[in-house]
Structures are given as structure tokens and as C-alpha cells.
Specification:
The structure holds two protein chains of two kinds. Chain A is an all-alpha fold. Chain A has helices at about 20-25, 25-35, 40-45, 50, 60-65, 70-75, 80-90, 95-100, 105-115, 130-135. In chain A, α2 crosses α7 (about 80-90) and α8 (about 95-100) crosses α9 (about 105-115). The N and C termini of chain A lie far apart (about 35 Å). By secondary structure, chain B is of the alpha/beta class. Chain B has one domain: LigB-like (Protocatechuate 4,5-dioxygenase, Chain B). Helices cover about 35% and strands about 20% of the residues of chain B. Chain B has helices spanning about 15-20, 30-35, 40-45, 100-110, 125-135, 160-175, 205-215, 220, 225-235, 240-250; strands at about 5-10, 50-55, 70-75, 80, 95, 115-120, 145-150, 180-190, 255-265, 270-280. In chain B, the strands form two sheets. In chain B, strands 6-3-7-2-8-1-10-9 form an eight-stranded mixed β-sheet, sandwiched between helices. In chain B, strands 4-5 form a two-stranded antiparallel sheet. In chain B, α4 crosses α6 (about 160-175). Chain B is globular. The relative contact order of chain B is 0.23. Classes of the chains: A mainly alpha, B alpha/beta. At the A-B interface, α2, α7, α8 and α9 of A face α7 and α9 of B.
Chain lengths: ~140, ~280
């Protein structure tokens, strides 16, 4: 069954962790949660594909985890607070993950944040439905 | 009678906790952030609340996806700091106020807010970072803390209006507690930030500053912001700001804004902070 379109699917570059994704991504998130225990981190590092068989994952989800495709994990129901635990297991800072997800180098990402972050202008809508708001007519 | 004397809100960025724990607070990047809370610590020392009700969200620490309560009230005697992957933060154990918490649970559930009672819970940076920002790094936190965990991780979180009304119910519960207690309500999370997906790094200072203005003077307007607008304007994780509305709902309509601070960024997040005092509560 294709995903039911939601109003927030119009926000660019954003995978909202909703009830449907939570259902779908239960295995991804429980796998990530398991990495809070050192014995599990060791078992995962020893044989990643074998370890992932402990969790109810689709082939796509398994591939996304093995390839560390963080955006795909989110799209398939992972949540960032959970997938960040995988990043930590790999020894990466959160900024490293953020840079990966945005397709920037970590340096460029850090510089963007220091300069005030990613602007909302041009990043509100895929469809341009929010045009009225762009004029600043309605805010907060 | 217990009474709410003030409310405060602040972001709860994990990297702020890491900067404290790794003694980086004097580095220029972090000094910019921490200098904004010097006045807050002085205010806090003078305000001397007897109890803090801390509204925060758990980040896959106490609650995984196995159980996702929308509102969960910490009724335990104490709440140890959670291990978020780097060992528990070296901060004091949070001591609760189980008697007042039980009273609040009973009162607000009968007021039609069906919150979850939690008798065993670890607390993560969402709760301990704001305590550091207001209290520094003491050997013990200055007073008991009742944690109120709100789901803002799984969409949809409670609406801003629902949060505001829960604040109203909290106020009623506190007013019906016979013992004289000075209560501080602390809202945490926000401000604008997105840490997930290709749009990560989003910051919207204009939205944040308007939110602070309205929080202070016209909070009911904020209760009408739909979730879509929070996520579009303030980032997917900026929706945490609904938690500030619980704090604001617990205060009187007219309050005195005694302090405000805003800076960008701390890690991936816009840091906002405000202190509001009830006029009759002093």
C-alpha cells in the first residue's frame, strides 16, 4: 500500500516520523536502541548483517543500515534520535551525521550553522503552496 | 497553599550538556551561549523555588518506540541520569516530590488530562541540561523536581492548545495543594531546529523571536499554530516548542517578563530562553 500523502510531505528535505513510519520502522528503531548496550555494539561490529537478523527488517531497511544511508533510514521509518545511536556506535559526532544527511561536508555544514543556519526562505515548500506566507503576512 | 511563582523556558541542546561535562564552557563558541544564562542563575538563586515542574521530552532514553506516552508524569522519589551512549551525565540524581506529583496526577486526570503515571524513569539531557542552565553544576539540585515528559518525537505531539490547557490544569492542581510551596514551571526544548534529513540545520530566528514576544504577552495566539506551521517554519524538531505552552498555560494571563536571551547556534539549534513571573505570586 503506498504511503498516504500528508500535508507535511510538502516540506522539502523532511521525513516526519509519524505513526505510519513508526509502524514501518519499528525494527530499525529497536535495532538502534539495542546499541545502547556494549555487548550488542560488539556483536553488531563483529558481523553487521548477522546481527541485523535479530530484528524485523525488510531488505531495503537492512541495506539502508548496512550502507549507512541515513536519509533512507528516516524514509523507511527510522527516527533521528534512534539512528543517531548508530552514528555514535560508529564513533561519529552528530554533526557528521547532519552533514551526511544534507550532502554537505562537515566543514561546510559547521560553517552554515555558525553563519545562522539554513534559511527558511526557499526551504518551506516543495509545491510553493506556502507563497502567501512568504510575504510575511502571517507568522507565529 | 502552593502557588506558581514563575515560569521559565529554555532550549535543551545535548551539546550544551557535553560542553559542561567536558569543561568547554570558557571556549568562545560556548561562552557566547553560557553567558546568556548568568543572569538566570542569579535570578534562580533569588527566586528559591521549593519545587520545579520540568516539562521536557525524552530522546529515546527512557522511552523507546515500545511505549510512547503523550504526557508522562514522574511520580518517583528520584530519577537517575540516563546513559545516552556516553555513560550517564555526571550530574546529581534528580530528586522528585512524589506526594505533590501524586496529587497532580489525581487532579489533572479528573480534569480530563489522561496522563501516564511513571514510578521508575531515568532522565536524559532534555531535563538535566535546563537544570544546569538555571542552577549551574551544584553537588545537589537546589530543590525537588517533578518531571513531566511530553511526546514530541512521534508525530503527532499534543497540540499547542492541548498543552496550554494542560498547563491550566497543572495550575489548578498546584493551587489545591494545602502546603505552602513556591513552584517554578520550566518549559524546555526548541527553539527552531531541524536535525533530520536533507533540510537539517534549519534555523528561523524571525519565527523564534515572534514566538518569544507572543509567549510573553499574547500566548493564546500561539495555541492556534498548527503542527504543519511549526515544522515548516521552525524545523521538524522545532515542534518541541509546544512544550513551552504547558509552562505558559500554568502561569497567569498577565506576567512580567524579567529576562530573555536568544543566540544562534548551539550545535544545530537556536537557543532561546525566557523567564516570566506571575504578578501575584511573589
Amino acid at each position: 500500500m503506498p504511503r498516504k500523502q500528508q500535508d507535511y510531505d510538502d516540506i522539502p528535505g523532511t521525513f516526519v516520523f509519524d505513526a505510519e513510519r513508526s509502524r514501518q520502522g519499528y525494527g530499525i528503531n529497536m535495532f538502534c536502541m539495542s546499541l545502547m548496550k556494549d555487548e550488542n555494539r560488539k556483536a553488531f561490529r563483529a558481523n553487521e548483517a548477522q546481527y541485523l537478523k535479530r530484528f524485523p527488517l525488510t531488505a531495503d531497511q537492512t541495506r539502508a543500515i548496512l550502507e549507512r544511508d541515513y536519509n533512507r533510514m528516516l524514509e523507511l521509518g527510522g527516527n533521528i534520535y534512534f539512528t543517531a545511536k548508530l552514528g555514535a556506535t560508529d564513533g561519529h559526532s552528530f554533526q557528521h551525521l547532519a552533514a551526511l544527511m544534507t550532502g554537505m561536508t562537515q566543514e561546510d555544514y559547521a560553517a552554515m550553522m555558525l553563519a545562522g543556519g539554513r534559511p527558511v526562505e526557499g526551504n518551506r515548500s516543495k509545491s510553493g503552496k506556502d507563497k502567501r506566507r512568504k510575504s510575511g503576512a502571517k507568522r507565529g | 497553599m502552593a502557588r506558581i511563582v514563575a515560569g521559565a523556558a529554555t532550549s535543551h541542546v545535548p551539546a550544551i550538556g557535553a560542553a559542561i561535562d567536558n569543561k568547554k564552557t570558557e571556549q568562545p563558541y560556548w561562552k557566547r551561549v553560557f553567558s546568556g544564562f548568568e543572569k538566570s542563575k542569579q535570578w534562580m538563586a533569588a527566586a528559591r523555588p521549593d519545587v520545579i515542574i520540568a516539562i521536557y521530552n525524552d530522546h529515546a532514553s527512557a522511552f523507546s518506540v515500545e511505549l510512547v506516552p503523550t504526557f508522562a508524569l514522574g511520580c518517583a522519589t528520584e530519577f537517575p541520569p540516563a546513559d545516552e551512549g556516553w555513560g550517564p551525565r555526571p550530574v546529581p540524581v534528580v530528586k522528585g516530590h512524589p506526594e505533590l506529583a501524586a496529587h497532580i496526577a489525581q487532579s489533572v486526570i479528573l480534569d480530563e488530562f489522561d496522563l501516564t503515571v511513571v514510578n521508575k524513569m531515568e532522565v536524559d539531557h532534555g531535563l538535566t541540561v535546563p537544570l544546569n542552565l538555571l542552577c549551574g553544576s551544584p553537588a545537589q539540585w537546589p530543590c525537588p523536581v517533578i518531571p513531566l515528559a511530553v511526546n514530541v518525537v512521534l508525530y503527532p505531539p499534543p497540540t499547542g492548545h492541548r498543552c496550554f490547557m494542560l498547563g491550566r490544569a497543572l495550575r489548578k492542581a498546584i493551587r489545591s495543594w494545602p502546603q505552602d510551596l513556591r513552584v517554578l514551571v520550566l518549559g524546555t526544548g526548541g527553539m527552531s531546529h531541524q536535525i533530520s534529513g536533507p533540510r537539517a540545520g534549519l534555523i528561523n530566528s524571525k519565527f523564534d523571536k515572534a514566538f518569544l514576544d507572543k509567549l510573553s504577552r499574547d500566548p493564546k495566539k500561539l495555541t492556534r499554530i498548527p503542527h504543519l506551521e511549526y515544522m515548516r517554519e521552525a524545523g521538524a524538531e522545532g515542534i518541541e516548542l509546544v512544550m513551552w505552552l504547558i509552562m505558559r498555560g500554568a502561569l497567569d494571563d498577565k506576567v512580567d517578563e524579567v529576562y530573555r536571551f536568544y543566540t544562534v547556534p548551539a550545535s544545530n539549534t537556536a537557543v532561546g530562553h525566557i523567564i516570566l513571573e506571575n504578578r501575584r505570586g511573589k
